[in-house]
Amino acid sequence: MTTHSAQLFSISTGSPEPIYRQLVEQVRRLVAAGQMAPGDGMPSVREVAQTLTLNPMTVSKAYGLLEMEGLLTRKRGMGMSVAERPAAGHSAAARAELLRPTLERAALEARQLELDPDTVLSLFTHILKEQA
Amino acid sequence: MSAALRTHAVLARMALSSRQPHAGILVLSFALLAAAAIGVLVQLKMEDPVLSIGVAARIGLAGLVAGWAGYFLPGAIKLNTPANARLVPALRRRLMGLSAGAWAAATVLMALLAVGSGLAPALVLLGAGSLLATFALARTGHWAGIAMQFALFPLAAVSRDIPAGVLVWLTHGPGLALASLLMLAYGAFVLRTMFMHGDRHYAQRERQKLQTERLSPKGQFKEGRPNRLATKIYLAFLRRDCAGRDAGKLLGHLLGVREHWSYQALSLALVTLIGGAALLLLRVYGGDTLRVMAANGGWIFALGVMLVPMFEHERRNIRLMDTRGEQALLRLAPAMPATAGAFNCTLARVHLRSALLGWCMQVAAVLSLTLAAGAPLSFYAMQVCACCLTLPLIGTNLRRHARDAGLLGLGPLLALLLSAGISFAIGALLRAAFGLPLTAGAALASILIALVAVPWRWKRSVAAPIAFPVGRFA
Amino acid sequence: MNTPIVQLSSIRKQFGGKPVLNGLDWQVMPGQVVGLLGRNGAGKSTLLECLLGLREADAGTVTLYGEDVNALSDATRARIGYVPQKCDLFEWMTPRQMLGYFKALYPRWNEAKVEGLLARWGFDRFKLDTSIGKLSGGEQQRLAIIRALGPDPELLVLDEPVASLDPVGRREFLRELIDGVVERSTTVVFSTHILSDLERVALDVAFLKDGRITLQGQLDELLEGAHRVVGAGARAEPLSLEDLFIEVTQ
């Protein structure tokens, strides 16, 4: 039951992604990667805001979204912590969703290179089979 | 030409190159104008065409020489940076040589020009040399030079009264030698001040920039390094007023050190002390003629104190124009009145109080100087009446600041002349009708004018849009 | 509390025949942290000055806390803090004297906060007794911010408050803004060119162009909603705040 420090997070300004979205993505990735285990305490909104020099409302917006998603829960008197999820929560569909941002970027590049979907898909399948 | 001479020539060209684009035409036209004007005056007085042309020619040439010296010297001072000193061998020595040569040449030339005119060449030599040296010193921003520049005018006025014996002593033998040595020593001091080593050069350049800025009408009253004693006194008052929370006094602090009445009191006290001491010395050690001269003429000098307010009003106005940022902050301060009328009223009260206090202090200074000059009792009343003539000027700073924020320019002077003219006219009438002395009648008239003009200006400034920040509608 | 603190309606202002503000409407709600963006010379400073009543608008009304801005009561003015663009004000006074002067001008002065900020932002005893005119630009700006924060304002208006500060100074300023100001639900309006600071701290942005507020809204929504349509294939590229700025103020 560790309480994570706010220094786990980093944000970058000047990116098209709003800052709250960056925070949400980071938490999702950390939880999926197992770095944040269920039951671990999250740093308080104030702590994150101070460490990253952000408006506290942005941080609480991110936390609120994660709470709605079910990734975080609010424990009375203890602030936010990672939610206990059923082991089957690592469904394929949920994990596939995590791949979405990367795939979206690849799709954008494919469109810029003016490749048709079939070519792209066959290339992707080829790579996946290679690495398997 | 030898290499050394060539270097000197290059340096001279470089020093002159920093002049403004039309400097040549400026100097030429000024010299021509002065020559023509003085030539005509001499012609009118002496009715001798040969003499007048001769004088005009001399004045013209002297003007040209002065102009050249006036442009060369500041350029030379600017050249003397520590960086340049490393690049050009013996830069400082060469520049000093050039300047000394220019000074000597100009002085000798002027003395030569004086040959054949009524003035003794030796006197012209001494006078021109000291004058040029003083101008050079003033251009470096040195306080002594600036002070001496101001002393030149009264000195010129008094020069006619210098007893003939002194003049003769100066132009012959040991007297001449001593005076020349003094002048050379003065010249050497000025040279040393002009061309300084290292960091002191930069400090001097700062002073010079301030001087140059002061030559423009708006930069006239730019504050230099504030006098430490005056600042200390001002800060004591600031501390006290901060504890007091009087809106008017806090508003007054917006204008800084020089506009505070303590500064004015200090400078008036200084002038009174020095002037008074000088007059007392004249009376004690001077001969009878000097004593009479002081008694009868000293009051003019004393009255000169009353002309200072005209500069003060302008300076105050410029200060207002320069502190717009501060005014914005004060406008948002809760301690200041909220509505336009109340705010303008507070500001007007600050201006009026300052002007009245200043006037009272000036009258005190004038009377003290008159006392030091040893004038007869009747003069005191006359002095007070003469001071009353400037009373209408008290309302000068009661403007519609939001709208009019420009320079006052000749306004106060013209207003003063107008008011003085009307006062004297009424004074003459009163003298004819009641036998009242002229100045007393004029003083009464001025007081009446002030009682009419000042409330009118007050009402106008209070009814105007809120004063701060000034000049919004300009 | 849903009445706007700052309300500008149909503000018109022109300088020498050239309109700077042209029928501008704007509102700032309590607790908002709004960044005002605009090109150089767009009129941001003029807008902020009109907002505070330091400049009369040629037409239109401005109200602060429900009061007309030309006659703000003492109580309202005590709630406003202003950091103007020019930082070397009161240059003949020392920081200590200047802060003492302002303490006398405001009914409420948080001495502890001021002392804390002075200590944290590098004003040692020596600097506190040097005249402001001799301090560096960054120090003057930091002092101006401290002066504005002294009376614990509820509305803070800042005109390019970090223009002269180095990155550490800017970070410190943002930190103080977040800790001391946003935490208290202070309303903040600031104009800046440094977009990264805006992204961190501001929740709302307003773009000033052609004398009006052309775009205003929550920063997050604007970034998510803004996409640049590129090329024939109608690909939508997401925009950063900088790109958005360039597009909007074109």
H/E series of chain C: EEEHEEHEHHHHEHEHEEHEEH
Largest sheet of chain B: none
The number of helices of chain B is: 20
Could you give the distance between the termini of chain C? 36 Å
Domains of chain B, number: 2
End-to-end separation of chain B in angstroms reads 60 Å
What CATH architecture label of the largest domain in chain C applies? 3-Layer(aba) Sandwich
- Helices and strands of chain B: which structural class? mainly alpha
Helical proportion of chain C, percent range: 25-40%
Describe the largest sheet of chain C.
6 strands, mixed
Number of strands of chain B: 0
> Strand content of the residues of chain B, in percent?
under 5%
CATH topology name of the largest domain in chain C: Rossmann fold
The Cα radius of gyration of chain B reads 26 Å
Strand content of chain C: 25-35%
Low-confidence stretches of chain B: none
Tally of structural domains of chain C: 2
Largest interface, Cβ cutoff 8 Å: B-C, 35 and 31 residues
Structure description:
The complex is a heterotrimer of chains A (132), B (474) and C (250). Chain A is mainly α. In chain A, 55% of the residues lie in helices and 6% in strands. Chain A has two domains: 6-85, Winged helix-like DNA-binding domain superfamily/Winged helix DNA-binding domain (Arc Repressor Mutant, subunit A), CATH 1.10.10; 90-131, no CATH class. Chain A has five helices and two strands, in the order H-H-H-E-E-H-H. A two-stranded antiparallel sheet of chain A has the order 1-2. Chain A is elongated, with a radius of gyration of 18 Å. Chain B is mainly alpha-helical. In chain B, 77% of the residues lie in helices and 0% in strands. Chain B has 20 helices and no strands. In chain B, helix 3 packs parallel to helix 6 (121-139) and helix 6 packs parallel to helix 9 (173-194). The radius of gyration of chain B is 26 Å and the shape is globular. The mean pLDDT of chain B is 80. With 250 residues, chain C is of the alpha/beta class. Chain C folds into two domains: 1-79 and 154-164 and 185-250, Rossmann fold; 87-153, no CATH class. Chain C contains ten helices and twelve strands. A six-stranded mixed β-sheet of chain C has the order 6-7-8-3-9-10, sandwiched between helices. In chain C, strands 2-1-4-5 form a four-stranded antiparallel β-sheet, covered by helices on one side. Chain C has a two-stranded antiparallel ribbon with strand order 11-12. Chain C is globular. The mean pLDDT of chain C is 88. Chain B binds chain C through residues 223, 226, 231, 235, 238-239, 241-245, 250, 253, 256-257, 323, 325-326, 328-336, 338-340, 465-466, 469, 472-473, and chain C through 49, 52-56, 70-75, 77-78, 80, 82, 84, 86, 89-90, 92-93, 97, 100-107.
